[in-house]
Design goal:
Layout: E1 2-6, H1 17-32, E2 37-43, H2 44-50, E3 59-64, H3 70-73, E4 76-81, E5 93-98, H4 111-127, E6 130-133, H5 136-146, E7 153-155, H6 168-177, E8 184-188, H7 197-204, E9 212-216, H8 223-232, E10 239-243, H9 247-256, E11 259-262, H10 271-278, E12 283-286, H11 289-295, E13 300-302, H12 307-319, H13 321-335, H14 340-359
Parallel strand pairs: 1-2, 1-4, 2-3, 4-5, 5-6, 6-7, 8-9, 8-11, 9-10, 11-12, 12-13
Helix pairs in contact: 1-14, 6-9, 7-12, 10-13
Length: 360
């Protein structure tokens, strides 16, 4: 039996959280279901890059288009859109993963992006036989904003990969590469409005001048205003804008930083929270959206709209060794609860439930 997945977002020079999800889920599905054959579909702009990546035994690649011929769709029992969109062609069963719906609010994206995103999300919500939401927060948004009955939604959290240990020289090389010195605070995520970086910069200005702030991520919506705020900051010389940081170096930065500062205004999941915890790094994050759900009691939660709370949270995590030790312990325990093996098993359960319904 064949299961097709839109694997387009698993490739690229700078994978986002969605890209990590696609990559790790695909890698975990094939060995977990040797009785199934997985068809990895890539849109034209990334298909030839896909040819360079290794292929598990029970998988094959195909070029993906919006409208597919009956010869293409024949034999495929289920199609899974991994990024809240589905092809126009119909399959016997269709599943869509929803990561977030921040674009529907209009605050954190351009009008053009909002229009295209909304159209694709509404279409996927209407035509999918079942929806996978990466958090209960996203599931609630799908219910409220797209009118989907809760019975059609299953929440399946991301996994997280353990962060390896590194040699002293590897860590020192990483510091030199990004012109960082310890101690520093770390933020991982795109430079965009919903990440609340301007307010983080404002909070950072109140901390001890011994600290640097490292911002690792590509530019997104609102980046120009954020860069202007950094240039105008009295702490500008201590703020390092790193751009996109490859995964191996992000892992090194998790090992080197004093804390992860992640006061995002809206997250569908918030993978950096778990990644930092798996590296033994204390986390300060938002008490809203999915970050509170993902962090549980293993992070210090703050109101992301209150700069004073962010300042206080960072000061506590940086200055209270008892609190730091507690957050490190709880964070490691929390991260251990999330695995891609579990995410793949729960995703396969959704597939098999839908396909069993067809057989009965």
């Amino acid at each position: 039996m064949k299961i097709a997945l839109d694997a387009t977002y698993s490739l690229g020079p700078s994978l986002s959280g969605v890209g990590v999800y696609c990559t790790r889920l695909i890698e975990s599905l094939a060995p977990a279901a040797p009785d199934l054959r997985f068809v990895l579909c890539y849109r034209a702009n990334r298909f030839f890059r896909a040819m360079l990546s290794p292929l598990p035994a029970n998988t094959e690649r195909r070029l993906f288009e919006e409208r597919l011929s009956p010869r293409w769709t024949g034999g495929v029992a289920l199609f899974h859109g991994l990024n809240q969109r589905l092809p126009r062609s119909r399959f016997p069963r269709m599943v869509a993963t929803f990561h977030d719906l921040f674009a529907l609010s209009g605050e954190y994206s351009t009008p053009d992006f909002r229009w295209r995103f909304t159209a694709l999300a509404k279409d996927a919500a209407a035509r999918a036989d079942h929806i996978i939401a990466v958090s209960h927060y996203t599931a609630f948004q799908v219910e409220q904003l797209l009118g989907v009955d809760p019975s059609r939604i299953t929440v399946i959290h991301h996994g997280v990969d353990p962060v390896p240990e590194f040699t002293i020289e590897e860590l020192a090389t990483c510091l030199r590469r990004y012109r960082l010195r310890r101690p520093f605070l770390l933020h991982v995520g795109a430079i965009q409005a919903r990440k609340n970086i301007s307010r983080l910069v404002e909070a950072f200005e109140s901390l001890s001048p011994e600290y640097q702030l490292a911002l690792g991520g590509s530019d997104g919506h609102g980046a120009a205003e954020i860069h202007a705020r950094i240039v105008a900051s009295p702490a500008q010389e201590r703020i390092r804008v790193l751009g996109y940081v490859p995964r191996p170096d992000i892992e090194r930065l998790y090992r080197l930083a004093s804390a992860l500062a992640f006061p995002s205004l809206d997250e569908g999941f918030g993978l950096p929270v778990l990644e930092a915890m798996s590296a033994g790094l204390p986390v300060v994050t938002s008490n809203r959206s999915a970050t509170a759900e993902v962090a549980g009691e293993a992070a210090l939660l703050v109101d992301p709209t209150d700069t004073a709370q962010i300042v206080e949270g960072l000061r506590r995590v940086l200055g209270d060794e008892i609190l730091r030790s507690e957050l490190v312990r709880k964070g490691l325990e929390r991260a251990a609860q999330f695995s891609w093996t579990r995410a793949a098993a729960e995703t396969l359960a959704v597939y098999r439930r839908l396909l069993k319904t067809d057989e009965s």
